[in-house]
Design brief:
With about 300 residues, the protein is α+β, with helices and mostly antiparallel strands. Helix content is about 30%, strand content about 15%. The chain has an eight-stranded mixed barrel. Strand 5 and strand 6 form a beta hairpin. It is rod-shaped, with a radius of gyration of 59 Å. About 5% of the residues have low confidence.
């Protein structure tokens, strides 16, 4: 005879299995009643259902049931997340592209502005400093007397010469020449600014626009040879190595003749052009009492 087992003798696991078995029997009993009454159709057994559930992603052991609707939502969410990530990456790339293009555009604009500001180098047109060398005049023996010799000026350049004669004399400067000494021919004469007819009555004239003594460039001085003191009468006696001393209100500058004396036409104004080193150029009419040429003496700064 089987021994009766009391409930208190069973373990928790045994009680759980008994409860499950009891529920299963009760369920089967109700299903049998539903079948007999026609309230339920014949369905597949649990053995047939189990593989189908597993195919649908149902794990009966862990009871994790995946809802198809939730699965679709999750799939749509993943697709949307990928689309958003793609949009964000595209936006970042677009921003980088815009910034790069902006920098390139600014650089190109700067280059165009620089190119527009840089003008081609043109050869400067030389300023017309004179159309004829200064100190020109008719000799004292001329029947008409001594006067400015306008005949030396080419006719087509006479309006230019007239305009140049009206250039205003700049105000006195401490650096401009005030006196000239040439020991070789005993010259000690004042120097005034300007070499027009009126200025050369007062002494040696410094050409307006030429540099001051001691400066880099050409200091142009002129005087008459047979009127108004005959200051430059003996320029033809000067030789290489002779000194020409130019004084200012500040100091003196010594130049030494290093080239031969030249005799040129009155229109040979190139001798008045700027030079690359401190130079003094002396100009006077020549020869004595004829005055149809010019005598040119040049010296270079050696002291000062």
């Amino acid at each position: 005879m089987a021994r009766k087992i009391r409930p208190e003798d069973l373990s928790e696991e045994d009680l759980r299995r008994l409860m499950i078995e009891k529920r299963r029997k009760s369920r089967r009993k109700r299903l049998d009643e539903f079948r007999r009454s026609g309230r339920i159709l014949e369905t597949a057994s649990m053995e047939d259902i189990e593989p189908r559930r597993q195919l649908r992603g149902i794990d009966l052991g862990s009871h994790d049931i995946v809802n198809p609707v939730d699965q679709k939502r999750q799939d749509r969410k993943q697709v949307l997340d990928r689309v958003l990530i793609f949009i964000e990456i595209s936006a970042i790339l677009g921003l980088v592209f815009v910034l790069f293009n902006g920098v390139s555009l600014i650089q190109r604009l700067n280059q165009e502005i620089t190119a527009a500001l840089v003008q081609p180098s043109f050869t400067p047109t030389p300023l017309i400093r004179a159309v004829v060398l200064p100190s020109g005049h008719t000799p004292p023996t001329d029947p008409g007397g001594t006067r400015f010799n306008e005949a030396e000026i080419p006719e087509h350049l006479r309006p230019v010469a007239q305009a140049l004669s009206n250039v205003p004399v700049p105000p006195p400067s401490a650096e401009q020449a005030t006196r000239i000494e040439i020991p070789r021919i005993n010259i000690n004469a004042p120097v005034v600014m300007g070499d027009g007819w009126e200025q050369l009555k007062q002494g040696v004239g410094q050409h307006i626009g030429s540099v001051n003594p001691g400066q880099k460039g050409n200091l142009v001085l002129s005087a008459h040879n047979d009127i108004f003191g005959e200051l430059f009468r003996h320029l033809d006696q000067l030789q290489s190595g002779d000194e020409i001393i130019i004084f200012t209100n500040v100091r003196s500058y010594t130049y030494v003749i290093d080239v031969e004396t030249e005799i040129v036409e009155p229109t040979f104004v190139q001798v008045m052009d700027p030079t690359s080193k401190p130079t003094v150029t002396l100009i006077s009419c020549y020869p004595y009492l004829v005055n149809d040429k010019r005598i040119i003496v040049r010296a270079t700064l050696v002291d000062g």
